[in-house]
Each structure stands twice: as C-alpha cells, then as structure tokens.
Design goal:
130 residues, alpha/beta, three-stranded mixed sheet, two-stranded parallel ribbon, globular
Length: 130
C-alpha cells in the first residue's frame, strides 16, 4: 500500500540519538526517519546508511520533494564536525531526482566554510543538470 503523507528524513549529528545502538530510527506515528550520524561521519558511512532512506521514501506516493542541502555537513565546517564531501550532496540530489517525484525543490542551508558552500552547490547543480 502506498502512503501519501509527508515523509521527512533527517540525516544529522544529533547527540541525543547516537549511541542507541540503532543506525536508523523510524517514528511510525510521525512517518519520519532519523539517520543519526556520529562525529566525523564520512561518505563511506553515509553511503552505507542512505539505502534505508531511499527505501523509506519509495513507500510513499511522492508529489513534492524538498532537499535541504546544507553544506555544514562537509568536512572542514567548524560547527558540525561531520566529514561528508560535496560528492555526497550530489549523490543525494541525483537519487532524489530519480525517484518518481513530480517536483524537487533544493534549498541551501547551513555551512560556515565558503569554499564548502561553493563546491557543494556546484556539485548539486551539476548532478541535477546531468
């Protein structure tokens, strides 16, 4: 059965979730999926966890997707202490654009390293233009 409610997915470094011994936390009542990332999480870990998000999204009849592509998750950002690369941002944009989603809105979010911001957005736009 296909669900039509909103399907927020959070991939972030919330210290309140890390350490629960669970790589993903599904909140059935809210139809949300949190994918907690530990400090220094990198592309390898994210790539291993991302299929859970895609599987979750495919259970919905998606009409509109919003990608909050904040560059604060890229290595070298002074706030989050994550170590993703702009390639991961591009891969997520590419994956979302390949879902049967009628519209995709990509928003720029956090990021406190100007080089990271420029590179992440360049890679996302290139991925969506290909």
């Amino acid at each position: 059965m296909t669900r039509t409610a909103g399907a927020p997915i959070g991939c972030q470094r919330p210290s309140r979730f890390w350490g629960l011994g669970c790589p993903k936390i599904y909140h059935e009542a809210e139809d949300t999926l949190d994918i907690p990332l530990p400090p220094e999480a990198d592309d390898v870990l994210f790539t291993r966890l991302w299929p859970a998000a895609e599987h979750f999204l495919k259970s919905f009849d998606i009409e509109f997707c919003i990608l909050q592509a904040g560059a604060d998750s890229i290595g070298g950002d002074p706030i989050t202490h994550l170590n993703l690369s702009p390639r991961t941002h591009a891969a997520v944009a590419r994956a979302l654009s390949s879902l049967p989603c009628q519209r995709l809105l990509v928003l720029r979010g956090g990021g406190y390293n100007r080089h990271n911001l420029a590179q992440a957005w360049n890679d996302v736009v290139q991925a969506l233009s290909a």
